[in-house]
Amino acid sequence: MMQTNHMFSAGKASMRLYVLLIRASIRSRMQYKFNFVLSSMLVALIQVSEFLMLAIIMNKFGAMRGWSLYEVGYLYAVMTLAKALYRTFANEVHNLEKYLVGGELDQLLTRPVPILFALFTQNFRLLPGEFIQGSFVVGWALHGMVRSGQIGWIAIPYTLLAILTGAVILFSIGLATATLGFWMTRITELQNFTEDAARTAAQYPLVLYPGWMKSMLLFVIPVGFVSYVPSLFILRGEYGGWLLAVTGAAALLCLGASLQFWRYGLTKYQSTGS
Q1: What residue numbers bound the domain in which 76 lies?
Q2: Of 100, 94, 91, 87, which is closest to residue 265 (Cα–Cα)?
Q3: pTM above threshold 0.70
Q4: What is the pLDDT averaged over residues 40-56?
């Protein structure tokens, strides 16, 4: 019983420390409010312009292999929101290379908190532009499909679940890729492939791709489970509700495997001073 209370107290203290560090990071960013607001607006405009181009093309040529504009917009928005959620709380995982090259990881290792926890609190990012754009598009898509009778309002909580599990999957992919930096050091090009290119491909229905690429996006770099797989049930009622359970299981499996790989990678890390 005493051990349980001690663990609970330690977890509570760690959470308080995390909140304090996040607040400090946000305050430092808000010192330049005009730059923050302007950059957020620019990001939102860029994201909206990207989707508008897709909408114009689909409006001219029709459905994309049987997927309507609302459905494609839904995939796009869920992926955007999942990515924004991941990058808000764990952005520095994506930037691990600079810590390895510059020796900053050595400084984090001296802190009396787990290294991954310390990494999370570095340069906490606020991404209002991506959240606003993603929320607008997913709201527009859901409203259009509810109005047409394709889906019911139950799709809203299902969508929130898909965004949450999607963020976990994207974080897991990012963490596994970053862990390879303990051997490779330079991982930017690899991240461009495993995170950026794969995520961009999975913004669209996987039926567009040949079988080998679809399998890669589902089982090698599992970005297909972020939006495409849950959407098969949420939007189309295919396979049944167990598909959401499979998506959740995939998220937990990816998270557990990536954390285990991260812990192993840390044992192979060689300090810049060694």
Answers
A1: 2-267
A2: 100
A3: yes
A4: 66
90 vs 167: CA distance, rounded Å? 10
- pLDDT surpasses 80 at 147: yes
| Residue 200's pLDDT band (cuts 50, 70, 90) | confident
Mean pLDDT of the chain: 83
In-domain check, residue 272: no
Q: Which of 1-5, 8-12, 100-104, 172-176 has the highest average model confidence (pLDDT)?
A: 172-176
- C-beta separation of 164 from 85 below 8 A: yes
DSSP letters spanning 177-214: HHHTHHHHS--HHHHIIIIIIHHHHTTS-GGGS-HHHH
Residue 32 maps to a domain: yes
